Amino acid sequence: MNYTRFLNPVSLARQPSPIRVLTAILARSPPSMISLAAGSPNVDLFPFKEAEIKLRDGTTMHLDEKKMKTALQYGATPGHGDLLKFLKEMQKTLHNPPTFDRPPDEGGLDVCVTTGSQDGICKSMEMLINPGDNILIDSPTYAGTLAILRPLGCNMLSVATDHQGMIPDALQDVLSRWKPSEKRDPQSSMPRVLYTIPNGVNPTGASLTLKRKEQIYKIAQDYDLLIMEDDPYYFLQYSERAPTFLSLDVDGRVLRFDSFSKVLSSGLRVGFVSGPRPLVNRIEMHMMASVMHTPMMSQMLVSELLNMWGMDGFLKHVDEVVDFYRDKKDSTIKAAEKHLTGLAEWHEPVAGMFLWMKLKGIEDTKSLIEEKAARKEVLLVPGCAFMADDTAPCPYVRASFSLASKENIDLGLSRLAALIREEISN
Ligand SMILES: Cc1ncc(COP(=O)(O)O)c(CNc2cc3ccccc3n(O)c2=O)c1O
């Protein structure tokens, strides 16, 4: 893979920070090394000494003085060592990437902790995209990614999706404007990046089948596309976890974004990007210049928990989380069938926390939701929020079933039904 063709001038201009280089040298030096280099504050002056964290399962996690000092001090940009080690083992166990043992300059797999997957996606788009570039995205897609892309001035080429995610034939149709051979023409306007959410799509709740992933990966090979696999709902799949693009990635063309937000904590802001070393290295240099690293306290809490639980313990917790969301999904579908049959259409989600509904007889849901629904005391997200063109009418709404009680989901959907009846009778 020629990774340089994917990098924009800003990313190509990035250099490792001299201070971070010294930090890395110090990290691998013997205790006899005398450092007069880093401008790090003296941790003995920090007021925080140690911590006991009570877990819901009745156990306790203890941050002793040594761990507390590490958690309170500057750390390495790629992430806290113990956490990074666990994450790399996790990727090997769950995805067995073909690039795992490849040399770094040949696209060997690397991992960098990010401040939520949002941070990784944002830094990656700011590494890859130039104003005027064409980029391929799911339609509909995550509003947070649209918010990243809009200011970059690129052309978002929407690829149709259905209840099984991105449609490979639709992707091929969008790309039919170009010849695959144009991948060798630096002046070509052909897209270089494909962004997709493979599981529990936000907002549709759809998941790509393995067959579709294989078809999409083949198209990405034909046109030399990078695949950005944004997968925060990977651990929220209601049935067996499907193979990922990372597990198919024989070329080193996948940047995968994982997140602990849906299973451990969203407020700790711990995610991680996995992908070819030449690309992850550029993200790290951006991280050095922007925030230096994801907060060490957050990383320490996640690292201590994962290393205490081990992979089996973590996946046991994931199973409990999946049981919760599957049960909430079931009660949401029951309520939708009870109140919205004939008024709306939907597919049953197979992962995640969202129900995507098309309201019948209503051309655009924006004013219905933002003005009238609020008066009925029910809040959803209008479908236009998930569209590259958010000015076009959109008959869809997204309902999230993660927080509301089953009773309130039932009441909320009954209020939505009353609202739809009023709207279509006018
Ligand atoms: C597909 C996809 N990719 C990346 C992310 C970011 O996850 P993180 O940075 O790892 O925590 C998300 C998070 N999605 C949302 C977050 C959110 C936060 C406050 C309020 C509302 C929110 N709504 O509605 C969301 O959908 C996502 O759905």
From TrEMBL:
CDD domains: AAT_like (cd00609)
Enzyme Commission number: 2.6.1.39, 2.6.1.4, 2.6.1.7, 2.6.1.73
UniProt superkingdom: Eukaryota
The family this protein is said to belong to: Belongs to the class-I pyridoxal-phosphate-dependent aminotransferase family.
GO terms of biological process kind: alpha-amino acid metabolic process
Listed cofactors: pyridoxal 5'-phosphate
Its job: Transaminase with broad substrate specificity. Has transaminase activity towards aminoadipate, kynurenine, methionine and glutamate. Shows activity also towards tryptophan, aspartate and hydroxykynurenine. Accepts a variety of oxo-acids as amino-group acceptors, with a preference for 2-oxoglutarate, 2-oxocaproic acid, phenylpyruvate and alpha-oxo-gamma-methiol butyric acid. Can also use glyoxylate as amino-group acceptor (in vitro).
Ranges for domain Aminotransferase class I/classII large: 33-414
Keywords in alphabetical order: Aminotransferase, Pyridoxal phosphate, Transferase
UniProt protein name: Kynurenine/alpha-aminoadipate aminotransferase, mitochondrial
Molecular function terms, GO-annotated: 2-aminoadipate transaminase activity; glycine:2-oxoglutarate aminotransferase activity; kynurenine-glyoxylate transaminase activity; kynurenine-oxoglutarate transaminase activity; methionine-glyoxylate transaminase activity; pyridoxal phosphate binding
Annotated organism of origin: Capitella teleta (Polychaete worm)
Top-level EC class as recorded in UniProt: transferase
Biochemical pathway: Amino-acid degradation; L-lysine degradation via saccharopine pathway; glutaryl-CoA from L-lysine: step 4/6
Reaction equation(s) it catalyzes: 2-oxobutanoate + L-kynurenine = (2S)-2-aminobutanoate + kynurenate + H2O; L-tyrosine + glyoxylate = 3-(4-hydroxyphenyl)pyruvate + glycine; 2-oxo-3-sulfanylpropanoate + L-kynurenine = kynurenate + L-cysteine + H2O; L-2-aminoadipate + glyoxylate = 2-oxoadipate + glycine
Pfam families in the cross-refs: Aminotran_1_2
Cellular component terms (Gene Ontology): mitochondrial matrix
